[in-house]
Structures are given as structure tokens and as C-alpha cells.
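Postdoc handover notes: sequence design on the structure in folder B. Input C-alpha cells:
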């Protein structure tokens, strides 16, 4: 906030009508810029004093101190709001981190499962022979004989036999 801008808000400050969005910058400027602070003190004393006279109130004895109290109050209020905003942001951030973590964990889980599955399928033959070793090689059953039996073609139908005969001995 420039000095010009800060001084343009002096009247609003004295009347207690300074926009909330400007309070932070205004207070900071008034606490750090002696020129503007003097200006503020001058107008504050003038306006508040005149109002007190107009309303037949008791005149303040320490305008300077009153002004400091007002500025400090505003600074406190602004900082409180910033803290609130910050803590709200922290909660949001914590939530976001949690979500990211969960998504990440889910992804890890998927990658893990995918790798397990691909390992399993690439080692499929190994597992197969390990699990079935006993059955395949030390069985009482004659697996070779059984497979030959299974591969014997079904008996040909009469039509098929005729068909085959016609192929082998085509009619002249
Ligand atoms: Zn200034």
C-alpha cells in the first residue's frame, strides 16, 4: 500500500468504516510509516475530538494512546482472521494429503496385485508341475494309454466310409 493510498483510508479508519480487505495493509503501513502515522494521528485527534465536543462528551486526554489501541485491535483482528484462514487451509491441506496418500496406496496395491498376477502367470508352468508332480509322474494310472484311448476317433459312419472309399477309389 502506498502512502497516498494509506492516507486515503484515514477518514474511513477514524469512522470505523475501513474495508476489511484493506485493514491488514493499512495497519501494517501505519505501523511502519512515520509520515502516515503522524497524519493519521492528526486527523484522528481532530475528528474524534470534534465529535466529542459536538456530542458534549468528555474530551479524551490521550488521543495518541487511544489510536494505538485501535490500531492494535485491528491488527489483532486481522491476524486472527489470517490464523483462521491458515488453519482452515491446514485442514484442507491435511485432507488433500490424506486423499493423495489413499490414492497412492490404492495405486501401489494395484501395481502389487498386477505384478503378483503377472508373476503368477509367468510362473504358471512351474507352479503347475510342482503342484501336480505326484499325479503326473507317480500315478498308478497309465496316462499315456489313457490319452491314446481318448484320441481314438469315433467309429466312422456308413456315409463317411463310403465317402472315403470314393476318394480312395474314384469311379472311372
Ligand atoms: Zn506512508
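Designed sequence:
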Amino acid at each position: 500500500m502506498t502512502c497516498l493510498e494509506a492516507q486515503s483510508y484515514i477518514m474511513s479508519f477514524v469512522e470505523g468504516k475501513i474495508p476489511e480487505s484493506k485493514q491488514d495493509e493499512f495497519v501494517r503501513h501505519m505501523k511502519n510509516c512515520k509520515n502516515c502515522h503522524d497524519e493519521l494521528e492528526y486527523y484522528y485527534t481532530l475528528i474524534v475530538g470534534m465529535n466529542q465536543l459536538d456530542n458534549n462528551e468528555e474530551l479524551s486526554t490521550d488521543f495518541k494512546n487511544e489510536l494505538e489501541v485501535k490500531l492494535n485491535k485491528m491488527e489483532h483482528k486481522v491476524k486472527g482472521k489470517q490464523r483462521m484462514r491458515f488453519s482452515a487451509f491446514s485442514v484442507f491441506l491435511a485432507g488433500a494429503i490424506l486423499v493423495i496418500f489413499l490414492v497412492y496406496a490404492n495405486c501401489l496395491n494395484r501395481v502389487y496385485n498386477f505384478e503378483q498376477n503377472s508373476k503368477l502367470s509367468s510362473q504358471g508352468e512351474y507352479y503347475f508341475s510342482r503342484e501336480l508332480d505326484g499325479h503326473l509322474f507317480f500315478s498308478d494310472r497309465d496316462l499315456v494309454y489313457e490319452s491314446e484311448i481318448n484320441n481314438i476317433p469315433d467309429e466312422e459312419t456308413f456315409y463317411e466310409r463310403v465317402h472315403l472309399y470314393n476318394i480312395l477309389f474314384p469311379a472311372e
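Context for whoever picks this up: The mean pLDDT is 85. Don't rerun without checking with the PI first.
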